[in-house]
Amino acid sequence: MGIKIVPRHGNTLKEKLYLPAIFGGMKTTLSHLITNLSDTPEIKTINYPEEQPHDISERYRGVHRLTKRDDGSVRCVACFMCATACPAECIFIEAEERNDGVDEKMPKRFDIDLLECVFCGACVEACPCDAIRMDSGIFSFIGKKREDFVLSKEQLLANEEKKA
Amino acid sequence: MSTISIAVVIINVILALLFSLGAAPILVWIERRVAGLIQDRLGPNRCHINGIRLGGLIQSFADMLKLVFKEDFKAKAIQESFFFSLAPVIVFASAFLSFMVMPFADDLIINGERFIMQGLPMDLGVLWFLALAGLSVYGIMLGGWSSRNKYSLLGAMRAGAQVISYEAAMGLSVVSVLITYGSIHLGDIVAYQGQLLFGFIPAWGIIIQPIAALIFIITAFAEANRTPFDLAEGESEIVGGFHTEYSAMRFGLFFVGEYVAMSASSALIVTLFLGGYHLPYLNTQTLQAYMPFILMVLIVALPLGSWSAMRWIQKHNRWHKANDIRNHESAFLQKGLIGLNVLVIAGVGALLVLGLSETSTNVATAVIQIATFALKLLFMNFVFVWVRWTLPRFRYDQLQTLGWKVLMPLAIANIFISAIIVVARGL
Amino acid sequence: MTDILFVLLSFFAIIGALGMVSLHQPVHSALSLILTIIALSGLFALLSASFLFMVQIIIYAGAILTLFIFIIMFLNVKEANLPKEPNKNLTLFLGSLALLPLNFLILRAFYKMPLLTAPLEHDFGKIKPLGMELFTKWLLPFELISILLLVALIGAVVFGRKDEA
Amino acid sequence: MIANSLFMYIAVGMILFSIGLLGVISRKNIFVIYMSIELMLNAINLIFVALSNYHHDMGSQVMAMLVIAIAAAEAGVFLSLIIVLYRRKKSLDSDIFRTLSQKEAV
Amino acid sequence: MSIGILSIIIFLPMVTAFLLMLIPLPSRPTRNVAFGVSLAIFALALYIYTHFELTGALQFKEFYPWIKSYGISYSLGIDGFSLIILMLIATLIPSAYLLLWKNERSKSYWINMLFIQSGISGTLFSLDLFLFYFFWEAMLLPVFMIIGLFGSGNRVFSTLKITIYTIMGSLFMFVSILYLGVAHYYEFGLWSFALSDLVNITSIARDQKILLFFGFMLAFAIKIPLFPFHSWLLQTYSNSPTGGVFLLSSIMAKLGVYALVRFMIPLFPDLFVEFSLYFVALGIFGLVYFGIAAISQMNIKKMFAYSSASHLGFITAGVFALNVQGMMGSAFLIVAHAIATGGLFLLVGVMERHLGIRSISGLGGIATKAPWFTLYFAIMLFCTVGIPGTNGFVAELLIVLGIFHYNPYLGVLSALTVLVAASYMFWVFQKAILVKSDNNVSHMKDLSRHEIVGLFPLAFLILAMGVYPDLFLYKIEPTLQHYLLDILHVGVH
Amino acid sequence: MQWVQLGYLLPLIIVGAGAIMLMLLSPLEKVSMERFSLFTFLILLSALSADFYYFGELFTSFPMQEIFSKMLIVDSYSVYFDAIILSGALVTSLIGTHYFQEKRHFKKEFFSLFLFSVFGMMLLVHANELLTAFIALEIASLALYVMIGFQKIHDKRVEASYQYLVLGSISGAFFLLGSAFIYAGLGTTILGDMGKTLDALMGKDVSLIIIGGTFVLVTFLFKISAFPFQNWTIDVYDGSPLPVTAFMAATFKVAIFGFVLRLMLIDLDPIRDIWDTLFIVVILATLLYGTFLAIIQESLKRMLAASSIVHTGYLLIAFVSIGYAGESASSSIIYYLVAYFLSAMGAFGLISYIAADEHIRVTYEDFRGFAHVHPYMAAMLSIFMLSLAGIPSTIGFVGKFYIFTGAIEAGYTFLAVCGIIATFISIYYYFKLIALMYFYPACESEWDDVPSLRGITPITIGFIAIAVIWGGIGNTFIAYFPGVDFLIESARLSYMSLFIK
């Protein structure tokens, strides 16, 4: 490692004047403006509510969902791994005994506060039994109160995997 | 004071108000739309009143309303609440007042009475602008200081130092312009620019004094705190600069004041360098002499222009859902344009048929000149916006270096050269 | 009309000046001074010195006091660093008493002078005749001012720059 | 009538001048001291301009302009000096600057 | 341009002193050179003495313009009165060198002595008042140096004191001189400070004239010192080195009297007459006062200091007696007292060098150890007291006569007071020299050869003048006649 | 040809242009400090030689009257003062050479400022109009303020600068107010015209001019540090670098007197006697208080500062005598200015030379036994002290002689006596130093750091010492060599030139 001396550019008079470069830049922006005003715009913006985004990738981390077992019951065993892994501490789990014999424990409550969540996906990685996923594809979650953003177990379970 | 003079005065004031204050929402709109279009996106285009969006212009009014009705919040730490409230007023008022001396048209003569077409009929001219530009910095500095917020203070400091340093270069560049024109009165300056240079080039300031024009435009950017000199706001490093703590209408005044100041700068640039209210090759005398001819050209040109505008609207002003209320807008605009055409042609036609009296010629000249001025003003404002979305912000030391080491010596050298030329020509 | 304006402007000028000497915070003082200066510029306008009116606003209000306020804010003086002036008002009062005779003496000398009634030329105080006056009769002082400003500039640079060593 | 009298202008000017003088004498804040000096110069300007009107002579308006320029020059030096002082002493109290009266060498 | 003999007398020591300052000679050769210079001046003085004509007019005049715009000139000249003092100086200074031959080791001592000699001569010869003032002040500096450098005790303070004191007096004189100059300018339209021109002034009002008179008088009174202006005296004398005291007491104090006669009489003849009574009285009062003060002193040096002052009061009284006896007596006493006091102080210096003490109570029995010393001491002392046979007797007799002529009551008073002096002088002689005491005076050595030689002329003069006074008086008489008859217009009684 | 008249202004132009040239040169690394000293010296020398071209000629003229319109005057008077100011500056630059090179923190701009202040002073003498004079005064003062505070690392420098600046500005405001009143009364501020108008006004009410003149005099009294305005002097002189102190004490005062004498003699002449009583009080107080201050000082520099107040008192004595003995009093001022200038310059210069090393102190006590270690320096210092005290054979004596003669000639014998009293008290504090230097044994170690006598500074000081002596005794013995008479004659000539119409 040494210090790399980068030669300074812009020693010619033209470059030192700066004005040609500035006018060049302004020409570029103007050409964009005119193109976009003309019949062949390059505008990439979609008119969102009316036009929906069509290029969301499959790996997009949307709102969480809790997966179900084949029997429709919650897959989660309330191991708290996700809550531990969560950097934003937005997962609140209350465990209870599972009496149906399928497993030993299950969450009594499983709340995720989306206002806290940073959508990092650490909980998904941490889950030992693939009980939590973020493949619902919901990129826009709307609520009118703060309380609306705390998703309960039921709501999480209700989220469906996004179909491609 | 006759009725006409009162009317003219009122019209003048209203025009000044329109050009400055009324222009503010339009400028906001232009800014946002142009920004969008330059960056390959749409600007605001949704807000509407009964389907009428005017390309998103309504959004500006909506924002205004929002600012007016928002909660006026003041942090508890702010002790100097008087100055805190005063600051935006100063910014706004000084920007607004500085617009007041711009001539929109040549002196209007009605019934032998001469009216100066300015908001405030003063002959101080460019000095008035310089004075108020100097005062406006108090608003920024007071606002930043009384906010008791270090970011605000930093912003205020930056603004203060910037304005002080650029004011010098600005004043000097103006001096060289004044040497050329031989007057400080803006009306005389514009009248001078109605001449032709070598018989075929309009003697606009930008052609006679390109260096002064360049310096003045640059410093005007700095005085108006516009990018690339908007370090006072510097949202990326000091949050929002001097207006971090402001909200609601207090913020609104800052916000509007900035656009008014921009407008005022543009108006001065137009006046000093872009021929003011003159159409190229058509100064007041020519206009008055060839008035019928020009009106005829107008009758022909206006429908043509409207027709292409209508074509454009038809093509672009569509909405996605067929049943949206906003789809009516296209038709409304077309009807409006046609109505305007009819009105203008009828009026002008009536004038032509009835024959032009001197007064009506004068009034028509004034109207045309006001329109010209408005167009030039709009163009200059557009340039402001255009530059903003092209150039990145300066670093602070670069800003000062530019001001003191480049612009100032250049301006002084320009004064020398101008003076020598003027004296040589005079001999 | 002019009388009312005169009274108002003088009132503001004096109020501003009083505020300047009596307020504790330097920023407040400076702002009061701006009030005075703007009021004074109004008085200049009343005296039909229109160019000076502008100059007063541009130079004094626009440059000198901006710089002043800039520095005050720039130093960001804390309350603790301000001088304690417990007897300020008392000294101001006593001082004003002491200055009364002087003022009386001076004003009495002026009292006998005739009023300014004669009409002025229409371009009195306008920039053009003023410029002619400045660049013919007063050329030398004008040039000297440039040297003075140069000296001040060097001085400011000397004081302002960083000490090496 | 009032606004027409030289006396009134001089009176205002003298009042301002006296206030300035008072400020210099009785305040300890170096900023205020300097502002008082500026006020004095301003008062003198008012007197000059009033006299210009009185004598019908624009010479004294020129004088007032020169005075403004002088004030600007002084302001430059003064402010830079104040910065130096404040940086060294961390105070705006003119009474603190008493190193000179102390018996000290060099 | 020729240089007159008086200029040589003034400038020879000065130039020599400057040369000595620049040439790095050690102390001893410096002293030898200085002594040589003083002998040379003695020779020149003898030349003048022999060529002096017996008139009251000024002789050996020299005149060069100096500052033309103010009419200031470099003009010199002597008359009989100056001549006496010139001779005195010329005689005393070589003796002083001899007396101080060994004890003063520093080079600057000798250089300062030379400077003093210059200053004294200059003061003595000046005819222009400006020039006179110039030398009068310039004379002070080397004294200042000599006391400060070589004195003892609180010498710095005493030097400052004497300097300020004397300069204070002389500055008032300065103002008076300036006033006279201006008055001359107003009256004649010409600037001049020459004595011969200033005496012509008639335009000064009496009130101013009185002030001017006292302006001059103050300077001289301090120098002499007269009664109320003596407070510098004690400390200075006791702290000064021997040479310094010698010069102060025997020469410079006399210059005060000299200047009094030389300048005040021509300038203010009427006032001189008018105020003479007060000054005679003051002189006699000084005589008594200082005499009593002397008695109460234990320090021998201080005692002599007071005794000297007391005699000077006597001299002053004689000057103001306005008759030829008084004035001649004064001139005579100036010489006599200069010699005697000078000798005494030199002897005290010797004693001090050997014993290191000055208190009278510490002495005693010196006579047995040092016979030569005792002899000279006795002669000087007798002279001071005015024992017949010494010149002191003649002088005092003349003065008493003069005062008696002037005013019989004062004359009687003065005759009585002379006795006071006798009493304490004898007491000292007895206590310090003769009576044997237990105190240790064993360190006392007798005088060395140089000292014996140096003191001999003094002792000789004392006796010679006492025996044959006319030899010395005839040269001065025309001058005094001139003063009294031509200027003061008082007859010789 | 009016361009030829520029020749009259040549010294002024040289100094001004030189100052600007030095300013432009100062950023260059290549040019060393020594070179800057040399440049300064050369500029001043050439200005001085240009000045001497007109020296001793009786004339008066308004150069370039069409352009400068009587704002600037050149006459024998100004030429004479120019000569004093320029030689003062020259001497300062010579004696300062050592100091500036020893002490760090003197940058090259210093010399530019120095020349600017010389320029201002010369301009002040040439000014023929009140505002022009004020601007000239401000140029000189501003440059001085900066020169005082140049070494920012010392608190006392900056404080001295501050103190001087504040008080100077206030006094400047008074000057302006005074000018305004004079203008109010007379309708002009040009010096010759004012006098004429005032003559015409005599017998009518002139109270405005009196008030205005008083205010102008307040500034004057302040700048020369007379009694009610003397407080700054000691602190500011003490806080300044020594050569700057010398420059301020000697040269600046000369320039101020140059202007005020012109004002008083030409313009306010008809009403001048109004201020006599005021001046008498001021003189008495100045002498008294200055003497008191001088006695209580311990530091030599402060003593010299205080003594400069006393010297101001002497000068004022002559100033007040002008009314009745115009010619001799004004030439006595001019002569005394030279005398004081030489003595103070020498004293300050020598002390600055001795104190060039930072840790040597300059109180009285520090000079104990100085003569035994450095006899030549002590001798020179004694000469300067004697001259300041006014002991015969020095120029100070002759100066006092003229002052007092003038006072007596004007009928102010009383003032002369007061001056005399102040003089003999002054003996105390001057002779104290001599006594300390000579009458105590040397303490060798303390003076090891004092530089030996080498270089340009001590030679200059030596010349000053000789000049001091020569000014006291010199005359026309040596043909064609200027002595006392020459100085007096040229002072008279310059006085006469004021009245040429």
Return the average pLDDT of chain C rounded to an integer: 81
Instruction: Write the CATH homologous superfamily of the largest domain in chain C.
Output: NADH-ubiquinone/plastoquinone oxidoreductase chain 6, subunit NuoJ
- CA radius of gyration of chain C is 20 Å
CATH class of the largest domain in chain C: Mainly Alpha
Shape verdict of chain C: globular
- Proper CATH architecture of the largest domain in chain C: Up-down Bundle
**Portion in helices of chain A:** 10-25%
Q: Give the strand tally of chain A.
A: 5
Arithmetic mean pLDDT of chain A: 83
Structural class of chain A: alpha+beta
Distance between the termini of chain C: 63 Å
Helix content estimate of chain C: over 70%
How many helical elements of chain C? Answer: 6
Distance between the termini of chain A: 49 Å
Low-confidence stretches of chain A: none
Q: Within the largest sheet of chain A, what's the order of strands?
A: 2-3-5
Strand content of chain C: under 5%
Kindly list the characteristics that best describe this protein:
heterohexamer; A: 164 residues; alpha+beta; 3-stranded antiparallel beta sheet; two-stranded antiparallel sheet; 5 helices; 5 strands; 24% helix; D: 106 residues; mainly alpha; Helix Hairpins; 3 helices
Q: What do you see in this structure?
A:
The complex is a heterohexamer of chains A (164), B (427), C (165), D (106), E (493) and F (501). Chain B has 15 helices and 4 strands. By secondary structure, chain B is mainly alpha-helical. Chain B has a two-stranded antiparallel ribbon. A two-stranded antiparallel ribbon of chain B has the order 3-4. In chain B, a hairpin with a 3-residue loop joins strand 3 (196-197) and strand 4 (201-202). Chain B is globular, with a radius of gyration of 23 Å. The two termini of chain B are 45 Å apart. By secondary structure, chain C is an all-alpha fold. Chain C folds into 2 domains: 1-79, Four Helix Bundle (Hemerythrin (Met), subunit A), CATH 1.20.120.1200; 121-165. In chain C, helix 1 runs antiparallel to helix 2 (26-46) and helix 2 packs antiparallel against helix 3 (50-75). Chain E is mostly helical. Chain E has a domain at 275-493. Chain E has helices spanning 5-22, 27-51, 80-99, 107-125, 129-138, 140-150, 155-188, 195-198, 206-223, 233-239, 242-267, 269-295, 300-319, 324-355, 366-369, 371-385, 391-406, 408-434, 449-467, 470-473, 477-487; strands spanning 59-67, 72-78. A two-stranded antiparallel ribbon of chain E has the order 1-2. In chain E, a hairpin with a 4-residue loop joins strand 1 (59-67) and strand 2 (72-78). In chain E, helix 13 (300-319) runs antiparallel to helix 14. Chain E starts with a helix and ends in a 6-residue tail after the last helix. At the C-D interface, helix 1, helix 2, helix 3, helix 4 and helix 5 of C face helix 1, helix 2 and helix 3 of D.
